[in-house]
Amino acid sequence: MNAQTEVKADPNQKMMTSDEAMALATQDTVLTPRFYTTDFDALDAIDVSLVREEWDQLIADMVGDPNKTHFRHKDDFAGIIEGLEPELRAEFTDFLVSSMTSEFSGCVLYAEIAKRTKNPDVKQLFKLLARDESRHAGFINESLKDAGIGVDLGFLTKTKKYTYFRPKFIWYAVYLSEKIGYARYITIYRHLEKHPENKFHPIFDWFEEWCNDEFRHGEAFAMLMRADPKLLEGHNKLWIRFFLLSVYATMYVRDHARPVFHKALGVDPTEYDYEVFDICNTIARQVYPVELDIDDPKFRARMEALRQAALRIEDGKAQGGIGGLMKRASGMAGAGYNFVRMYFQRPKTHRLPAKIRLQPAW
Questions:
Q1: How far is CA 101 from the centre of its chain?
Q2: Are strands 348-349 and 290-291 parallel, antiparallel or unpaired?
Q3: Torsion, Cα of 203, 207, 209, 214 (10° steps)
């Protein structure tokens, strides 16, 4: 957690403004979505020959554009966010802005890769990815605009800080982002199918087809990694474990910071998160030879201890002064200690399947 002041929706305020939504979208902390840049020249050397048959099938599916007409904004979205109870409105707005920023960060990166690479396979793929992510971000932003809190996406592109990652780190991180995005959306969607009384906004009706886009995107990154087997061997297994744990820990801390949002949905954030982790672990066996043992009681206890440490950091920020600084230092030490202990827990291992592609069967 860095020392930058974190912008949060104020549940006591009548309504968040567009400027505050922009501040929320542009903030940079350990837990907020990031914008990425990479070594674009290195992408020209990518060779997908090892996965050509499945690659061509996936590209054909994406060119077919199954969700071409899905993301159509409806007039009945208007007024719903404003009508929510203040605490729910604040947390739901935070959820939407965070989701929109994540989708748009993908759009920006994918579009830049498509523009700069000379590799025809990579160029075609990333044009298709950017198309989908642009629709997702725009759809969420339209929902925010209904409440008068839309974000200027062009301005966000210019003001958001960019993090440099080598291509392989982009693949590790974005693969997990896409797959856990699928797992999150489909878990909420299936829950609301059983409990429609908890569907407090119509945007949830879009989640099934929406998360199928995320699933296809993850398939593409799985193939990019399987096309270069050394990315999944040797010391790179340590990097895979790091990114798995980083993504899971970030989700766990962020979701528990939205208790009213999850209560409104009728889900317990801990149970929800571990259901999502289980789905993501199962899917990731297509490409990652290691997975985190999320069912180990020690893992779960340490994850909760990390969350408690994150709360101390936030309390220290709010308190200020020497006492607040000491509380933040204690929280940072606790978070780091528990992250390291989870990282060095023995992972599960398995052989990669001969076939890469999966279907969104959850």
A1: 10
A2: antiparallel
A3: 120
